# Entry
Amino acid sequence: MNNIEIIDKIKSEHRELLSLPQTLVEVLRITRDEKSSAEQLARVLMYDPALTAKILRVVNSPFYGVPREVTTLTKAVVMLGLRQVTALALSASIYNLTQKWDTKIDRIRFWRHSLEVAIASRMIAETIGYPHAEEAFVAGLLHDIGLLILEKSFPEDFAGIYQKAQKGESTLEIEEEIWGTNHARVGQFLLEQWNLPQAICDAVGHHHNQYPPNCLNSELIYSQIVALANLLSSFNIMRDFRGEQDLELENRENIRDNLNLTLDRLKEIQVKLLPKTVEDARYLDIEIGSVDDILMEANRLLTTQYMTVESLLCENRKMQKQIARTQMKEAALETLKTITATFNHYINNATATILGRAQLVEMAIKNEEMKDKNGQVARAMDVIINGVNTICLVMKELKDLTSYETTVYHEEHYIIDIEDKIKKQLKELENMPR
# Structure
């Protein structure tokens, strides 16, 4: 099955997913028209009393700190702006819409993660001074909606994927293996059917992409913002914490540099993210669990992350010890080379002296200057000379050996070759005529 087959199934069997409530359709139409006014948007929103109440509650929340209570929708739209109101309308409407779908996905965890990514996306956009931060918020909030679509369309297949993902396997890899597509691309398709701004659709579709260094394409800014926000999120939809993989860490660093974010600014966002998520959930009426639940989950994640860090520190200590041992081996090798050279110097002098004396004795016997009636002295000289030659041979091989890299010592066949070479040379020494 591929992406086209997935989309065809959604179109044929779940057409209800492809359309938004009429009020929201009108809101999006008005927002796309640059000539639209706050009054026009307010008139459309009034057809949805629940949405109207939510917008008024938001504008009067401590987040905006208005000096007087705002009681009219037109004034609220003027104060918040068309984009902000559209973002609120989208968030509320899609949240309410999807809450009606049957699902085995833990909805509280789903929206906790989605809202956290949405807020992180908005904060990143504001930090780097990118316009229309509310569109980044919407893209962040809807970035995983493809999961709900896939589950609704393929409940049995998704149940197996969800079970594996709960154990720490990569959701994306399993989706690609089974369907030939993933929830990011399916989510993008759905949002395009809803006629959401293309920047939002692209950001949803690309939030799992790997971004190379110096990826400065302005069309990919929203996509990179949401991708980074997703990597910053502490609260995962799946219960099991896999930890950050090497590719995720590399992607996070690349995107951070591409967006010209310093590490300190990113840390500031992370510090503010949890309390901001709890605060925004309250006035947006998005259920993300009680504060106690969130703190317990945060504590669990911290414990898991602590254990991960502890494991990494242990591995680091092992690595440092290994490096230290390697350095000691290298230092020992250099010391061995020096000692061997010194030994060679003194032994060469000593053996040269011994051989010189032996030769003098042999000459004296030959010239009859020294008597050796039974030939015992000559035989003794042969033993001495052979012994000295053996010492010289071994010392030469030892000197050659210490000129190689350390790894040579671990090659057994090389050691055997040296032994065979010495034995062969000693045999030749024994057979040499005197």
Observations:
- The chain is about 75% helix and 0% strand.
- The CA atoms of residues 121 and 373 lie 106 Å apart.
- Confidence is low (pLDDT under 50) at residues 406-412.
